[in-house]
Specification:
By secondary structure, this protein is of the alpha+beta class. It has 16 helices and 16 strands. Strand 15 and strand 16 form a beta hairpin. The radius of gyration is 28 Å and the shape is elongated. It binds adenosine monophosphate.
């Protein structure tokens, strides 16, 4: 019996991998422009990191983690998100002694045992950025700018809405939770089972429940955004000014509270207009570094779901723009032609590093070689067989026009020909 891939995982190759690479190249370019350094942390961590960091009442920790005992009886978890891991690394490596604010980006696979739907997998990748050591709304704005610049660069700005909200500091949130609890008390019995559990464990999350009957009960619910303390109000308004000044489009969505426990003040989500689901989200988490045993350090960050960005780009026919077309394919017939052809290809690769160069490595028939070149969208094919070697020429075929020409068999001539055509 053949072995299949696990549910919720996928193999990425052929056209799809080109879209992944396109996004990854843009991520690297943008991270560099914003002077953000890369960080790579382990795929598995101690389970306790997520219990304490993400919150043991959250859906991720309570239902979705890949947790197991290793051979040394340690409880290990495949990372379901990367902020907790980056914070662990920040503390463990004493990064607070580096110049602050410290800006870090990452890309990597995450693991959540989820019900599968379009754009929802059990292994998926996130690109994220974290900024440590700045309590200012300017750092919040910077994370929004990095993520929205990426969306713009890859051509998705018009397909995605940025929704922002503030969930306040611990003071105003505590007060608000009291108000919300009072409002929900007579209504909670009419709400869904998940909300009933959330009422005692994670009450803020009730606000973004998508169930119809809950929505009905939430019709006149108070929002945290309307119950912020003066400091948080000013902070949120300053952030909006910066975004407006930077011409970053956003809407305020009072229902955004985010699923993870560690957020405070600014929270935001990028929602796909087409799929109606989030492609990314982020926010401020000033308490997390100290919760995990580090020094008091304000922090803010976001994560974008790579798989969902790929889905959106696929629907926009991005491939035509980014396909890796071969500039010149060497069709070679016979051992001597392969020796000469290999040399020419290496010379061209060294001298013209922008060219994409490919050539026969399996002694295919002439027809098969031309068919292969055509399948790779080769612009030119350079044909070399014994006849051509005897005359010290090669045949260059322009695959678009079908025109063939004989030119002298040396790299300068081939380069000149391609450059001029
Ligand atoms: P979160 O860490 O839950 O805030 O998720 C941040 C982003 O990661 C989401 O907006 C999605 O784009 C992506 N994401 C989260 N869970 C999954 C999943 N199971 N499959 C694919 N992408 C996901």
């Amino acid at each position: 019996m053949n072995i299949s891939k696990q549910k919720g995982t996928k193999d990425i190759y052929s056209d799809d991998i080109l879209i992944w690479q396109f996004i990854e190249e843009n991520i690297r370019k943008i991270a560099k422009k914003f002077n953000v350094g890369e960080i790579r942390t382990p795929v598995f961590e101690a389970t306790e990191l997520y219990m304490r960091g993400v919150g043991d009442e959250t859906d991720i920790v309570s239902k979705e983690m890949y947790t197991f005992l290793d051979k040394g009886d340690r409880s290990i978890t495949l990372r379901p998100e990367l902020t907790a891991g980056v914070v662990r690394s920040y503390i463990e490596n004493g990064m607070n002694s580096l110049p602050q604010p410290l800006k870090l980006w990452y890309i990597g696979n995450m693991y959540r045992y989820e019900k599968m739907q379009k754009g929802r997998y059990r292994e998926f990748a996130q690109f994220g950025t974290e900024i440590f050591g700045s309590a200012s709304y300017l750092a919040d704005a910077e994370t929004i700018l990095v993520s929205s610049t990426l969306l713009k660069e890859i051509g998705l700005s018009d397909d995605i809405v940025l929704s922002i909200n503030s969930i306040g500091c611990s003071e105003c949130r505590k007060k608000y939770i009291g108000i919300l609890r009072e409002y929900l008390k007579p209504r909670i019995d009419n709400m869904c089972d998940s909300c009933k559990v959330r009422y005692n464990k994670n009450i803020l999350r009730i606000i973004d429940c998508k169930e119809e009957k809950c929505n009905h009960e939430l019709k006149d619910a108070p929002y945290i955004t309307d119950n912020l303390c003066d400091d948080c109000k000013e902070d949120f308004s300053n952030l909006q000014n910066v975004l407006t000044n930077l011409k970053v489009e956003y809407v305020i969505d009072k229902k955004i509270v985010r699923g993870l426990d560690y957020y405070n003040k600014t929270v935001y989500e990028y929602i796909s207009k087409d799929l109606g689901i989030a492609v990314g989200g982020g926010g401020r988490y000033d308490g997390l570094v100290s919760t995990l045993g580090g020094p008091n350090t304000p922090a803010v960050g976001f994560a974008l779901g790579m798989d969902r960005l790929v889905l959106l780009l696929k629907e926009k026919n991005i491939l035509e723009k980014i396909k890796n077309n071969v500039d010149i394919y060497f069709a070679l017939f016979g051992d001597t032609a392969h020796l000469i052809g290999n040399n020419l290809m290496q010379t061209l690769r060294n001298e013209k590093n922008i060219y994409v160069i490919d050539g026969d490595i399996s002694n295919k028939s002439p027809k098969a070689q031309l068919k292969y070149a055509s399948s790779k969208n080769a612009k030119f094919v350079c044909i070399i067989g014994q006849d051509e070697i005897d005359k010290n020429i090669c045949i260059i075929k322009n695959m678009e026009t079908g025109i063939q020409e004989n030119i002298n068999l040396n790299s300068e001539n081939i380069i000149k020909y391609i450059d001029n055509n």
